[in-house]
Write a structure and sequence with these properties.
Layout (H helix, E strand, L loop, with lengths): L1 E8 L4 E7 L2 E7 L5 H16 L6 E6 L2 H6 L9 H15 L3 E6 L7 H11 L3 E2 L6 H18 L9 H21 L1
Parallel strand pairs: 1-4, 3-6, 4-5
Antiparallel strand pairs: 1-2, 2-3
Helix pairs in contact: 1-3
C-alpha cells in the first residue's frame, strides 16, 4: 500500500499531511517547528496509522530527502521525532509489517504526493507534537533578530545577543511588575 507524506512551513503556520488509500490526514503543528520537523512528523503520523492497518506491505513516500537521510544518520537520532519513528518502525517490523521508504520529487504531478502537499498546507486539526530543542532555539533567535531590528541594532554588532537579551528580560520584568501591581 502506498502512503504519501509531506510537511509544510509558511510565515503563518506549519503543517503536515498524509495520504493513503482514500484517506487524507492533515494537521497543524506548532508554529516554531521547522519544515524538517514537519516532514518527520508526517512520516510518524503515517506509521501510527499503519499500525492499525490490515496492509502488511507498505511504501512510505516523501519528497524530503533530508527526512529520509535522518532516519539513517547517527547524529540525527537525537531529534525526538526521528527517535519515535525508528522505535515505531521496529515495533511494526516485529509485528510482521514490511515498510520501505522512498523519495519522490515534489511538485511534479504525482497525484497522491500533491494531495499530501495540499493537506500539509491546509487549515486543519491542531496536533500537539513537542517542539525539539533546535527548532525552539531557531525560533527564539529569529524573535531576537526581529526585536533587534525594531531597536535599530544591526546583527553585525558586537555581542548582538548579549545586548538584546537584557532588554528582552527587562521588558518581561516590567510586564510582571505591572501585572502584580
Amino acid at each position: 500500500m502506498p502512503v504519501y507524506t509531506d510537511g509544510s512551513k509558511t510565515d503563518e503556520r506549519v503543517g503536515c499531511g498524509v495520504v493513503f488509500n482514500d484517506t487524507i490526514l492533515s494537521f497543524t503543528l506548532q508554529s516554531s517547528m521547522s519544515v524538517f520537523s514537519a516532514e518527520l512528523t508526517a512520516i510518524l503520523v503515517a506509521l501510527q496509522h499503519i499500525l492499525v492497518s490490515d496492509h502488511r506491505h507498505l511504501c512510505v513516500y516523501t519528497d524530503s530527502m533530508s527526512a529520509l537521510k535522518s532516519l539513517h544518520s547517527l547524529t540525527e537520532r537525537r531529534h525526538p521525532t526521528v527517535k519515535e519513528i525508528l522505535l515505531l518502525q521496529r515495533k511494526l517490523e516485529r509485528k510482521g509489517f514490511d515498510i520501505i521508504f522512498y523519495w519522490v520529487p515534489g511538485h511534479v504531478g504525482i497525484l497522491s504526493n500533491e494531495q499530501a502537499d495540499n493537506a500539509a498546507r491546509s487549515l486543519s486539526d491542531h496536533m500537539q507534537q513537542p517542539v525539539c530543542y533546535h527548532d525552539l532555539k531557531a525560533s527564539i533567535l529569529r524573535y531576537i533578530q526581529v526585536y533587534g531590528k525594531r531597536l535599530g541594532i544591526s546583527r553585525s554588532s558586537t555581542n548582538y545577543i548579549t545586548f538584546i537579551l537584557p532588554l528582552l528580560i527587562g521588558q518581561r520584568y516590567q510586564y510582571e511588575d505591572l501585572m502584580s501591581a
